[in-house]
Amino acid sequence: MEDQLKQHTIESDDFHFPNMDAGGGAALPETGVSVRQAYITTVIYVLLIATAELITVYYDPKTGILLHGALMFALFGHAAFLRPSHKDLSYLLMSIGIAPLIRIISLSTPLSSFSYIYWFLILSVPLFAGILILRAIQGLNEEEMGLT
Predict the structure, then answer these.
(1) Average per-residue pLDDT for the chain
(2) Could you give the CA distance from residue 94 to residue 78 in angstroms, rounded to a whole number?
(3) Which residues are within 8 A (CB) of 12 and not within 5 positions of it... i.e. 6 or more apart?
(4) What is the Cα Rg of the chain in Å?
(5) How far apart are CA 28 and CA 34, in angstroms?
(6) pTM to 2 decimal places
(7) Could you give the dihedral angle defined by the CA atoms of residues 34, 18, 83 and 53, in that order, rounded to the nearest 10 degrees?
């Protein structure tokens, strides 16, 4: 019985409790960013994108493009600063950064001289380029992207 207990005993060097931040939440693996901070950051950026969308649709498309550009710059800049120490959150912010890119491309591309069927092809080329660059930066394979 004592041998079985020794087998199930965890040495203190083998197991570590999750890091606790000042807010009392568990930290993400290998980072000092709490799960709560990551959620809050993500929700703030998504709400800012939604606000930029509302301004684009109901107020002024030019102002919307400027806001989307600023958000894209902020998302990729924030991700770049986080990448050395907080890769998971950095990768999430990079992925969210594609949303403003979609709106910027769709509003700034002069498509009136093309047939409607070609619009999708023209708009998809820079988007796929951005996605492939993110894939290379994040080191994702087809299975991790859900392509298999």
Answers:
(1) 79
(2) 9
(3) none
(4) 22
(5) 6
(6) 0.70
(7) -30
pLDDT greater than 70 at residue 98: yes
Considering Cα of 114, then 116, then 118, then 124, what sign does the dihedral take?
Answer: positive
CB 104 within 8 A of CB 65: yes
Write down how long the chain is.
Answer: 148
Report helix, strand and coil shares of the chain as percent, to nearest 5: 65, 5, 30
The per-residue pLDDT for 90 is: 87
Quick one: tokens of 143? 């299975």
> Under the phi-then-psi rule, with left for phi > 0, alpha for psi from -120 to 50, and beta for the rest, what region is 39?
alpha
Q: Would you state the structure tokens that stand for residue 50, as one six-digit string?
A: 């939604």
Residue 148 is predicted with a pLDDT of: 79
Among residues 98, 93, 95, which one has the least CA distance to residue 126? 98
Mean pLDDT for 26-55 is 81
**3-state DSSP assignment of residue 26:** strand
